[in-house]
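Before the break, one more example. Copy the sequence into your notebook; we will annotate it together after we see the structure.
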Amino acid sequence: MAETRTSLEVIAPSVEEAIARGARELNLPEEALEVEILDEGSKGFFGLGSRQVRVRLTVRTTTVRPEEPTPVEKLPDVDDGDAVRITHETVEELLHRMGFQAQVEAHWGEVVPPGRIRPLLVNVSGDDLSILIGRQGETLSALQYITRLIVGKELKRPISVVIDVEGYRSRREQQLRRLARRMAEQAIETGRTMSLEPMPANERRIIHIELRENPKVDTQSIGEGDRRKVTIIPQ
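Here is what the structure looks like once it is written out:
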């Protein structure tokens, strides 16, 4: 039987940041990961229209998970007021240009666990906003990506902006976590590998994280492009 290893796909502005993010998600040192660059990305024109890099990180077979989390250096936050104001104004302007009338609230999120980069959370509320979410949150992810580019350019540094519409992201995350646990139970009971439906990278990451501490299963992303999906492999 072929050996299976946990892998994680990460999208970030640079290869170095993608590796650092993946190491934090998997709670492993960077040297414990094999790196495969799937997309080198592009810088775009004047910082706009750029494409982030995409890498696949695979845990080396000799890796032993450390008992304590690897310390992560936290980047200093930009001025709280400026970041919130610029992000709020940017999202409002983008929604206006897209033809949406909605209420926008922006605020700093909590640092959980300590040492992670503090996210700036944006909540959008209003009527008939389902089209703003799109299929599997694709439109929402595009809005979030564009907002990060514009705000980061204005503040002259990367910033973690997370946009949600009417609580969609939190509901979807809970749904995916329940799905991951249910499919893992089926894989263990039947002894068969279970394949989930194709998902975007951020949703596949939720599945990997939810099951990474389960010693009875491994997870792996397979496929290419829009058909990429998570498989759950019983041990």
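DSSP finds six helices and nine strands in the chain. The chain has three domains: 1-72, 80-166, 178-235. Try to locate both features in your own notes.
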